[in-house]
Structures are given as structure tokens and as C-alpha cells.
Amino acid sequence: MKKFTADSLDITATAEQTGSFAHDMRNFAHIMPEQIEQWQADENTCAFNIKNIGRLSMSRGTVDFPFKFEFPATAESKVKFILALHYRPNARKEAKVFFEIEADINSMMEMMARRPLTNFVNLLTQNLKTHLEAKTE
Question: Which terminus of the chain is more exposed, N or C, with fewer CB under 10 A?
């Protein structure tokens, strides 16, 4: 599995706010990039299309509250992957937050996918920060 990690960002949202967001897959509609098409979600799963990649689907997976939330690909997904949301609290009532994706792709595909997947997890991280901090104001 190849790993693509976003830059971590400081966030003022609490562990509970972040966990509440991650608990319901419908919330991901608020942070997905514009390129996402045919979005579908319920509380436990979501599915969407990304141009040039195809249909991706994921579900709620392992949780190590509040530090890590995993969302593995479902059988419907064209690519086997795990999307993870990391939350690292600090003493200043802030935290570092970032997404990463581990994808089961070969080395040739990794070269082509590195930039788009890194951009994808960076966008998710930035959009999560914006979304959660708007709710705390």
C-alpha cells in the first residue's frame, strides 16, 4: 500500500466535534472537493466518482478516539484504500489535524497518482478545518 499524507493544520475544534463529524459519513459532503461527482452517503458509508479514477466507496472503520478514524474502501470501490483522519491534541486547546490515504496501487500508478491524491487529502484537511471552525464561531 502506498501512503499519501496531507500537511497537518492547527484546528480549534475539540476532539468531540471532530469525532462527531467523523461518526456520520454524510458529513463528508461538506468537505469533498468540487471534482467529486455522484455523491451518495448514509451514516455508515459513502460513494462517489472521481474523474479518471472511477467509483470509490468507503465506510466507517476502526476508531482510536480521538486520535485516528479510519475509513476503508468497500467492495464497490474501484481501488482498495484506507482514508484516515488524524487528530493530535496539544496543551493550547488546539490540535493538529490531517488526512492520509493508503492505496493499493503499483509503482507506475503511484507516480501518476501522487500529486492528485496528495492534493485530495490536503483539500479534505483544509475543508475540514474550515467546516469545523465555522461551527465553533
Answer: C
